[in-house]
Amino acid sequence: MRVLVVCNSASGRGRGPRVVADALTALSREDHSTTRLDVNRADPAGFLQQLHDATREHDVTVIAGGDGTVHFSLPALLHASCALYHLPLGTENLFSREFAMQRDSSTLLAALRRNRRVTTDVAVLKRSDNTTRHFAIMCSVGPDAGVIERMSATRKGTITHLSYTMPVLREVARPRVATLSIEVDGKPLVTEQTGMLVVANTRQYAMRIDHAHRASPLDGLLDVVFMPAASGIDAMLWTLRSRLRERHDTDGSIYATGKHIRVTSVDARSVYQIDGEHGGHASHGPLEFSILPGALTILDARELPA
Hints:
By secondary structure, the protein is of the alpha+beta class. The chain has two domains: 2-115, Rossmann fold; 124-292, Sandwich (Tumour Suppressor Smad4), CATH 2.60.200. Helices cover 28% and strands 34% of the residues. The chain is built from eight helices and 15 strands. Strands 5, 6, 7, 8, 9, 10, 11, 12, 13, 14 and 15 form an eleven-stranded antiparallel sheet that branches. Strands 2-1-3-4 form a four-stranded parallel sheet, sandwiched between helices. Strand 8 (178-184) and strand 9 (187-200) form a beta hairpin. Helix 1 runs parallel beside helix 5 (105-114), helix 2 (44-55) crosses helix 3 (67-77) and helix 6 crosses helix 7. It is globular and about 60 Å long. It starts with a strand and ends in a 7-residue tail after the last strand.
């Protein structure tokens, strides 16, 4: 097969170049033709056009990086026949976790041999200035987004889980719980309540705190989870419940699914994150979510029962 390998040199905490070199060597041994393309965040539009053009000449795109690299590359991969494989080099690697994609070359080669392709949904966030961002995993409003904002303001180079320690402590001291109103498919779900919100395309969430435990990127729907919280302690308790796999069915949270979600906030401090990247302030106008069913083709690495 013709394989395009997209590399983010900032990912992998030093392991990235070795992992990519091993993958390129393994692909060549099995007679796959390979092309390497390095991520260029200094010129996003130019890189995305280059990636979009390259996908037309390849059968599979391997993205070597973290969830942020997948998110950054997503607009160029929509509706392409070229299948996506995530070679995980980030901190959480939620996208690769959803489809059992691993860092080792053997998993990649096995997926290429099976060549099982799945079309998955992609979510779209439209902001008040009419700009849009696509996302593959989830978007959230609340203290978790506050942690991401604090991290992005001080981030230099690669990060680990320990890098989040100070942003988490600062967020606990001054949490960004948000006062939100939420509509799902035109019907009110929440009206000016304070808490945390997750709009999910998949169930995956950092450190396996899977708030939207029923979300699937194959059902043409977005899952919406609102967890009432008036303080940082309340937010931490919701996080603990989700981490312990307690289901939010009868505990006061609100769980819904839909194709169109509208979120407004009157809280000037409320922020949102999208696929683990800082998004912006939710109070700058409504956030409107929609779904693109089957917009992304992936190379499925899951071993399905016979």
